[in-house]
Structures are given as C-alpha cells and as structure tokens.
Amino acid sequence: MKTPLSLVVALLFAAALFSQTPAQIPGPAPETGFVAIFDGKTLNGWDGDPKYWRVESGCMVGEITPETIVKRNTFIIWRGGAPKDFELKVEYRISDRGNSGVNYRSIEVTDAKWSLAGYQADIDGPSKYTGQNYEERGRTFLALRGQMVGIAEGQKPALIAALGDSDALKAFVKTGEEWNTYHLIIRGNVLTHILNGHVMSVVIDDDTKNRRFDGLIGVQVHVGPPMKVEYRSFRLKTL
Fold it and tell me: From the centroid of its chain, how far is CA 23?
C-alpha cells in the first residue's frame, strides 16, 4: 500500500523534532527576508474599528472596555496582501481575561464589517488555548496545543503525533507584562505554530473542500469581558 504523502511529511517532521539531543539543537536561524508590516506609530496599512484598535507606545492595542463590549468578534485586518506561503513573527502580551488570535489565510465575512473566517493561531489570557490552531467561523478546533494532526477530505482532525504535553507546553507561555513571540510557518498544506521557540501545534490539511491556500492576515478582540491585547514587531516573510 502506498503511504500518503502527508503522512510521510508528518513522520519526517516528527523524526527531525525528536531525534535531536539538547546539545545538537541549533541556535535561532538568522532573521533574513522579513519585512515589517506594522510601523509602530500608525495603523497605516491596517483596517479595523477605531473603537477597539489604536497605537500606543509602539504597540498595536486592541481593547474592550465596559462601555464598548462587543457582540461578535472583531478584527483589525492587514490590507497589504493575501499571502500564500509565508512566515510571520509577532510579539504579543494579553490581559489575564483576554481572548485574541492571529488569523491568516482568511476571508472577510460579508454579514459584518471587520469579521474574518479562517485559520487562527489562538491566544488567551489563561493560556488554555494559546498555541492551538482554531478555524474561526469554520471547522473550529483543528489542532490543540501539543498535537500534530492530519485532516482528510470531509473528515475530522486525526492525531498523527504528540508534540508534547499541553500543560508542559503551557509553561513556555509568558503572562503578565512579559512578551511572547509567535512564529507561524505556513507552507502548502502544513501549518506550524511556534511560540517562544517551542512547536505548539501542526496541522496537515488535506481537506481540499475546506482548506485555503491564501488569504488575509488579521488580529482579534473576542466576545467576552473587558480585555486588552498588545501586538508589536509584526514581520512577514513570503516564501
């Protein structure tokens, strides 16, 4: 029986991930080819509801106050393109009850302004979901933190390999005033979420009916209690 290509990719990825001892793991790769997509001073190139989004102290700030509670999730959307294969790096910190995420390969929802549907690198203050792959207004939970999954045509996500215990990976998520670094590597149908240098989730999406190979980037403030999320140093590298 011929082994599916996606399974081969997953097995090679897992072998490479777990075959290295700490002494063999290389240092961070040089950051070449990345371009800033947020200037730290204005929201030029971004489109969101000014009620919820502003620039403050070099950061893109999304905030919900008791007076501005949202009835549906709202995004600020990067208008510089709809990248296909790319790497994205961004730093963030979030309030303890906050809920946000970085959407990519997404489309705008026509029934509401500043709404996106698509893949999301999840972020939340309690770090219950941070690192997972969630499809906003779509197939919902694709890969939980610590999972590598494959999604076959019309099927639910199936676990291929464990990347680590969810609680152990949660320990690498920084809280309070500390900054986290998200690194998304999105290539073909393989979607990798890395947080603070640790692989959090991997999705191999073979569901040709529902997957997307390009789309918009945006960040979110979520329905719920008052919250604040800050983003800085957005860097994009198209592949």
Answer: 29
Lookup: tokens for 72: 């549906």
Whether 24 maps to a domain, the answer reads no
Q: How many distinct structural domains can be found in the chain?
A: 1
Q: Looking at the domain assignment, is residue 11 inside a domain? A: no
pLDDT in tens, 63-107: 999 999 999 999 999 999 999 999 999 999 999 999 999 999 999
Written as six digits, the tokens of 11 are 């097995």
Residue 13 has pLDDT above 60, yes or no: no
Q: What is the pLDDT of residues 202-215, one digit of tens each?
A: 999 999 999 999 99
**89 vs 233: CA distance, rounded Å:** 8
Our CA dihedral for 2, 8, 87, 199, rounded to 10 degrees, sits at: 150
- Which range marks the domain in which residue 82 is found? 37-232
pTM score: 0.88
State the Cα–Cα distance between residues 59 and 38, nearest whole angstrom.
Answer: 9
Does residue 17 lie in a domain region? no
Answer yes or no: are the C-beta atoms of 205 and 38 closer than 8 Å: no
Helices (H), 99-220: 166-170
| Neighbouring residues of 72: CB distance < 8 A, sequence distance ≥ 6 | 112, 115, 223
